[in-house]
Amino acid sequence: MALKIVKGSIDRMFDKNLQDLVRGIRNHKEDEAKYISTCIDEIKQELKQDNIAVKANAVCKLTYLQMLGYDVSWAAFNIVEVMSSSKFTYKRIGYLAASQCFHESTDVIMLTTNQIRKDLSSPNQYDTGVALTGLSCFVTPDLARDLANDIMTLMSHTKPYIRKKAVLIMYKVFLKYPESLRPAFPRLKEKLEDPDPGVQSAAVNVICELARRNPKNYLSLAPLFFKLMTSSTNNWVLIKIIKLFGALTPLEPRLGKKLIEPLTNLIHSTSAMSLLYECVNTVIAVLISLSSGMPNHSASIQLCVQKLRILIEDSDQNLKYLGLLAMSKILKTHPKSVQSHKDLILQCLDDKDESIRLRALDLLYGMVSKKNLMEIVKKLMLHVDKAEGTTYRDELLTKIIDICSQSNYQYITNFEWYISILVELTRLEGTRHGHLIASQMLDVAIRVKAIRVFAVAQMATLLDNAHMLTGNTQRNGICEVLYAAAWICGEFSEHLENPMETLEAMLRPKVATLPGHIQAVYVQNAAKLFATVLKSQEGNTDSTTAQEASQLMIDRLPLFVQSANLEVQERASCILQLVKYIQKLQQKDVEVSEEVCALFAGELNPVAPKAQKKVPIPDGLDLDAWINEPPSESESEDEQPKAIFSKEEPKHSRPRHTEVDEKELARRREARKQEQANNPFYIKASPSSQKVYQETPGVEHIPVVQIDLSVPLKVPGLPMSDQYVKLEEERRQKERAEKKKKDKKKRKEKRSGRGKKHDSGPESEEDITPAHMVDIVTEEMPENALPSDDDERDPADPHKALDIDLDKPLADSEKLPVRSHRAAEVLKSPAEDEEGENVSSLEPKKKSSKEKREKKKDKDKDRKKSKEEKKKKKHKHEEKEEADLLCGQADEPAFQSEETNEVVTPPTSTSADVSDLDFWLSNAPVPSNTQEAATVAAAEAAPAPGAISVTTPDSEPEEPKDTEMEETKSSKHKKKKQKREKEDKEKKKKKKHHHHHHHHGDKGGEESVQNGTVEEEEPLPPMSNYCLLAENSYIKVAYDIQGNLQDGSQVVVSVIFENKCDSFLKSMEFNVLDSLNSKLQRPEGSGPHDSLTIPFQLPPGVSNEARFVFTVQSIIMPQKLKGTLTFIVKNEESSTHEKLDFKLHFTCTSYLITTPCYSDAFAKLLESGDLKSSSIRLEGVNMPFHHLLARICFHHHFSVVERIDSCASMYSRSIQGHHVCLLVKISSQTVSVDAKCDEPTLLGNVLDEIKQTFSQC
Amino acid sequence: MIKAILIFNNHGKPRLSKFYEHFNEDIEQQIIRETFHLVSKRDENVCNFLEGGMLIGGSDYKLIYRHYATLYFVFCVDSSESELGILDLIQVFVETLDKCFENVCELDLIFHVDKVHHILAEMVMGGMVLETNMNEIITQVDLQNKMEKSELLLADKCSFA
């Protein structure tokens, strides 16, 4: 035994490790494959051993070999073995290997479920981390279903390292198991406000990814993201959010309006190019969504275009590229603004960088006009000749066609020119886009009747020179053009000068080398030509030509009858027989031309591509119903389908016969195909001939062979497009001259008019008339086509499954599957989360009920009441309380009936949520400077809030109505002009801004404040947290301090500067004398006493906001920092330098962050006994209790945990994680506040500040 | 989303390949070859973005790359990622490698591809960016390496005891 161990370890010493393997491979460059195969044999031996270290080493080597392209799936089971090692080292190797080579069809994956679950709940965070990382690469629907609940639990893990990974992997879980999205979503949303920046960023990442695919479901998160956008300092997160807004704005233009201002500010202030670029991008998206009827945003457009021009002109190619990319977005809605930069874009076409040229090409699309189309295309044709590499050349080709064909050939004035361009493009060797050229030729020839003569002549030449096109490479994409050429010559053969010659060209033996579907068209159109020849010879006494034609057909067609392609074969044999019959008749001198022509009579009209799809189903037609009952199983297959034809008259026996024959034929054909498909020796023809033309699935995969020809290929006899450019120019000049003459005449007549008009300015678009009157036939659509659009999403898209309404309350059936015997274990898992969240397996259900509560809001008061009732039982007030409540409940219906719309409107939860969003959106932009200034002004101007509230207690019956009215208004977002109302909303919104989406506990609190006791309801006085910092005759400065969610040592000071004078304020600089404890964050490289330049200037009467970040060490004491603001006052005559001193007051309150807390977590916290307590008493507080609470919430960043009658518990947390709990009681104007906190100094100061707040009013 | 991260040298030899979507080994090699072909023929002073990879992705995908000495770092990403952001991320990745390997060079990547994978795993997970803060990444990587070392010591002691 001992010997075995020793032997094992010695073996191990002689085993190759990864480094040895790599070295070995490098030393065997000549016979690498052979060396590796011996290595694989060794690995196989190693994997057979019991020693896990040896196995892990082997798996590690396999991972390397996998990278080199070796299939290692045979070792999947060994990988699982290594994954399940108890040692982290080996586990990591195992998971890495699994993440590299496992996928959905790896069968051993199902063995891993339990192992992964075990790792996820491992006490070692890195075991969990490694499992999450691995799982993110190979999660399957089964794994996702089985592990969703475990991962969801991890989203509230104590370690941020695990939390962020768990949050991120949820996206993969959603993709594989869409049912998990709804149950997990509330928690995911919570993580948007996680104290750890990494977790927050992960949550933003996941939601952005989800929202990108199904934006409308995430609109309700807009306020939350908006808040994050205005508070976050992490550029990565900002970029994601801004991108997300770009996806949301098209759905909600009001959102765009709200965004413009903060984004513009960011554009001005940020130094990060990446952020700037994304801001510009989103502003563009906003402007696009607003473009209808919002002309006053032209300034923003100009700003964007200017910024982009700067990017494009930058020497950094990356910025140039991105500038062009963003420019193309503006182009779609504001082509005018882009067109003015044509010079720049044309310049980029000559850039040496292909990526940039491609982007510039995209922009050209919008640059063309009737006037410059020819010139631009000429330039592009030059590029085509010069281009190396087929990708770019193909791109050029498609762009030329795109540009010319855009909006129904709007810019083409001369179709002869366009046809010749198309013909020139056929010279391209090895392009993949033959079919594109072909479809253009067909389209133009069909839709522009006037061009047919010319087109037919060109196509005939093309057919005659077909050998030039196909060259040696018969599987060349360009030969698709011949399809079009043959069809045009056949269909419009009456325009052919010499049909006989063309007929001969179409029946050359070489044609048989073309792809089947093209040959088929050749054969069919040869027949058309034949008919034309016969017709032209009609009445001609000498019938030799006609007979020659027949003979030609009879001679050449047998070649096609032998074709391997069924379609060709069928058509050829059919036509051959027909011609033989005609020949017989000819020999009898019978006039046949008319009958033959009748075969191809009638005009073919273009049909819109979607026409078929849009044919409405007539009433009463059920497509799924059987026309005839399906034959019973017992019926034999050979039986005649009597049912269909039995009612028909006997005359129809012949057609029936053919019908049967065709069916028989089809069946045989099918059988033959089957047989061929199963026969490995049968050389298969190209896939189904008709479809190929439209989709050409094969063409893309054809290996492109490039031929180096020193002599440019020119099809002899073909006109050059350049010729047309000249001709066109001459024509236009002539036209212009004529017009001038006319104008002069006119002007002479109107001499007395308005004097000089534009003399010989550049000709405008409308002046250019097309060379010949073009009758562009529009595509046909079925009558009463369905207007419905349009591009259905690919049903295979996994994101389609994630299009789930997230606002609906969660049903019990939607709970994530939890394995029952594990539930107990999960309960025990770390519940003492810092956030006081109780992690339990019951969570989803509890969530759902809470969710419901939040969503349904006051609409289901009754149910809520009863819930609250239950809770109250725990507390002191007992039966009397209940009786009261019951009374209240009894009163309820009366109120409800009064509440008209509010209650009657659909009780679905979504509407509540949507109206939340509406409410948020209907308010003026939050950080909008003017608004905020208004708030400040309002706060200052507002008289003692009692003014309104004092009078109210007398008039109780009216109150409910009052508030209801208000609520109705807010939900319907009617704007009331009264200032009081507006302020009220403002404040409410502010409040929302703070609390919105925070938590259910919070919400619950808010609700109880609003609805708990109806008598108390009255409008809350306006509040603002901005307080005056300093003021002089020029400027007024107000500020607000808020803790930074992401960093325990940072606070953000928002300062509003308002210009009070008539002069321009500029060069504002803000400086603060740092203390040991608090420091202003200055940009890198500046000294500790340098002042910060404020990134804007203030015109008279304007206010704007700037944010400054401070780092603080200790937060338990309030602090004052001295500072100065310097600025230059500039008016017409002079400019003076001014200075304003101020003191920034960092209160302890400003270090608190509104954090919701569930009542059970709150109770646990109080029970823990770690907290020190303290209390204060406030005398003579003359305000309703809910006002009092609202004030504490608003000014001191608390949230209500629970409220019972005249007693409420409140919670907040400091940026450094101190818990602060309050119990507030009121009895006859005396308020007692009992408080607990783990830091007594902090608590004392906070209480002092609360006292201060109430002594002021 | 990031679809793939590839590192290869000036001759197209793969030094690291991480696909966040499954392809079989042959296709993976083709993708690497194609990407190398596209990237390597570009001049030094052109932009770092590239469209037109056929095998991987489609029109929504872009190749964003940086070229350092003998190595190309290529990220294949879709339109939800910020182009400049990814460029910064590559920079962070390379700097992290530089810190972890102390003056990283191609040889480090050749012989320690597993370590590179572990570092990458702290930055990008399942195609989504996990962490962009270099110090945080290094801390986590170091802690895990420490754990590995202590386990190895323990194992050696056991086998000799």
TrEMBL record, chain A:
Job of this protein: Part of the AP-3 complex, an adaptor-related complex which is not clathrin-associated. The complex is associated with the Golgi region as well as more peripheral structures. It facilitates the budding of vesicles from the Golgi membrane and may be directly involved in trafficking to lysosomes. Involved in process of CD8+ T-cell and NK cell degranulation. In concert with the BLOC-1 complex, AP-3 is required to target cargos into vesicles assembled at cell bodies for delivery into neurites and nerve terminals.
Feature: compositional bias, Acidic residues: 777-794
Protein's cellular compartments: Cytoplasm; Golgi apparatus membrane
Superkingdom of source: Eukaryota
Compositional bias of kind Polar residues: 902-913
Keyword Repeat belongs to the record: yes
Family annotation (SMART domains): BLVR
Stretches for region Disordered: 622-694, 714-1020
Bias kind Basic residues: ranges: 741-757, 847-856, 987-1001
Regions of compositional bias (Low complexity) in chain numbering: 932-947
Occurrences of domain AP-3 complex subunit delta (ranges): 660-807
UniProt GO BP: anterograde synaptic vesicle transport; Golgi to vacuole transport; neurotransmitter receptor transport, postsynaptic endosome to lysosome; protein targeting to vacuole; synaptic vesicle budding from endosome; synaptic vesicle membrane organization
Similarity field: Belongs to the adaptor complexes large subunit family.
Assigned keywords, A-Z: Acetylation, Coiled coil, Cytoplasm, Golgi apparatus, Membrane, Phosphoprotein, Protein transport, Repeat, Transport
Gene this chain is encoded by: AP3D1
Pfam families on file: Adaptin_N (PF01602), AP3D1 (PF06375), Mu_AP3 (PF26171)
UniProt membrane topology term: Peripheral membrane protein
Basic and acidic residues composition bias: residue spans: 639-675, 725-740, 795-825, 857-869, 958-970
Signal sequence segment: none
Classification via InterPro entries: AP3_complex_dsu, AP3D_dom_metazoa, ARM-like, ARM-type_fold, Clathrin/coatomer_adapt-like_N, Mu_AP3
Record-level GO cellular component terms: AP-3 adaptor complex; axon cytoplasm; endosome membrane; Golgi membrane; presynaptic endosome; terminal bouton
Protein name in UniProt: AP-3 complex subunit delta-1
Automatic annotation (TrEMBL), chain B:
Top-rank taxon: Eukaryota
Presence of the UniProt keyword Transport in the record: yes
Cellular localisation: Cytoplasmic vesicle membrane; Golgi apparatus
Alphabetized InterPro entries for the sequence: AP_complex_ssu, AP_mu_sigma_su, APS3, Clathrin_sm-chain_CS, Longin-like_dom_sf
GO terms of biological process kind: Golgi to vacuole transport; intracellular protein transport
Boundaries of every AP complex mu/sigma subunit domain copy: 1-147
Membrane topology label: Peripheral membrane protein
Keyword terms of this UniProt record: Cytoplasmic vesicle, Golgi apparatus, Membrane, Protein transport, Transport
Pfam families: Clat_adaptor_s
Example of a GO cellular component annotation carried by this entry: cytoplasmic vesicle membrane
Similarity comment: Belongs to the adaptor complexes small subunit family.
Described purpose of this protein according to its UniProt entry: Part of the AP-3 complex, an adaptor-related complex which is not clathrin-associated. The complex is associated with the Golgi region as well as more peripheral structures. It facilitates the budding of vesicles from the Golgi membrane and may be directly involved in trafficking to lysosomes. In concert with the BLOC-1 complex, AP-3 is required to target cargos into vesicles assembled at cell bodies for delivery into neurites and nerve terminals.
Name of the protein this chain belongs to: AP complex subunit sigma
Species of provenance: Nothobranchius furzeri (Turquoise killifish)
Lineage: Eukaryota, Metazoa, Chordata, Craniata, Vertebrata
